[in-house]
Amino acid sequence: MAADPLSAGLLGGLEPTVELAPGLLLARSFFDAPAQRRLAADVAQAAQAAPFFRPRMPCSGKPFSVLMTNCGELGWISDESGYRYEPRHPATGASFPPIPALALSAWRALAGAAPAPQACLVNYYDAGARMGLHRDADEGDFLAPVVSISLGDDALFRYGGANRSDRTKSVRLRSGDVVVLGGPSRLAFHGIDRIYPATSGLLPQGGRLNLTLRRVSPPP
Ligand code: MD6
Ligand code: FE
Questions:
Q1: Using CB atoms within 10 A of its CB, is residue 76 exposed (0-12), middle (13-18) or buried (19+)?
Q2: What distance in Å separates the CA atoms of residue 45 and residue 111, rounded to the nearest whole number?
Q3: Is the CB of 200 under 6 A from ligand 1?
Q4: Are 152 and 126 in contact (CB under 8 A)?
Q5: Which one of 73, 94, 96, 124 has the fewest CB atoms closer than 10 angstroms to its CB?
Q6: Backbone angles phi, psi at 83, to 5 degrees
Q7: 3 state DSSP class of 63
Q8: CATH classification of 17-166+177-214 is 2.60.120.590, yes or no?
Q9: Model-level pTM?
C-alpha cells in the first residue's frame, strides 16, 4: 500500500482555502506540479480503459462541446434519454476504472465527514469548449459536497445561487485548483464560460481536464 499522498507531501496546499460564497470553497494550488502530472497520467491511463465519449443533450441530442468519461462505481451519462448515473461505460459496456488515489485524497481533505465518493466525472475541454450554467442535481444525496479538480489550461468558472436568475460572479481556475460545492452552495448554479488556450503545459494535447467527485446515493 503506497503512502497517503497527503502525508507523502505530494500536495501543494500552501495557499489557504478561500470561501467564495457560503459552502463554495476554492483550494488554490491544492495539487502541486508533480501531483498534477501524476493525476493527469492517472486520467490518461483510465481513459485507455474507459475512452472519452461525446455526451448529448436530453431530448434534442445536441452534442456537448466537452468530451466525458468516468471513474468509480457509477458514471454520469447524458443522451437523448436524459441525465443519469450508470454502472457501465456507454460504448464499451465495461465497468469504470477506479477513482485515482490523488483525487480521493482531495475528497478526504476537503469533503469533511462525507462518505466516500461513488462517481468521478472527467470532462475534457479543448480550446473552444464550454459548459453552460447548470446545477449538479442528479444525485440522491445532497448532504455530501461535490469536489472538483482542475488540470491543464485555465478556465473561467461562473457561479451563482440556487436560482438560474441569481446574480453570478466569476473566478479564473488554474491547474491544480480544487473547488468544493457544499452546504448552502451544494445546488448553486455554475458553469465554465471559456478556456484560456495554452496557459498550461500540463497536458500534451493542450486543453483542460476537470474531475468532479460525487456521492450519488445516501450512505447505507
Ligand atoms: C468544470 N465544473 O470545472 C465544471 N460541478 O469544468 C462543474 O461542473 C462543477 O466545478 C460541481 C461542483 C464543482 C464544479
Ligand atoms: Fe457541475
A1: buried
A2: 25
A3: no
A4: no
A5: 94
A6: -85, 140
A7: strand
A8: yes
A9: 0.94
Please name the residue whose Cα sits nearest to atom 8 of ligand 1: 191
pLDDT single digits (tens) 132-179? 999 999 999 899 999 999 999 999 999 999 999 999 999 999 999 999
| Minimum-distance ligand 1 atom for the alpha carbon of 150 | 3
* Cell numbers placing 161: 445561487
The residue to which cell 490518461 is assigned: 44
Query: How remote is the C-alpha of 63 from its chain's centroid?
Result: 19
Query: What is the pairing mode between strands 119-125 and 67-72?
Result: antiparallel
The whole-angstrom separation of Cα 128 and Cα 111 is: 31
Tell me the C-alpha distance between 85 and 216, whole Å.
8
Ion ligand 2: residues, CB < 5 A: 136
> Nearest 5 degrees, angle CA 6-CA 177-CA 172?
170
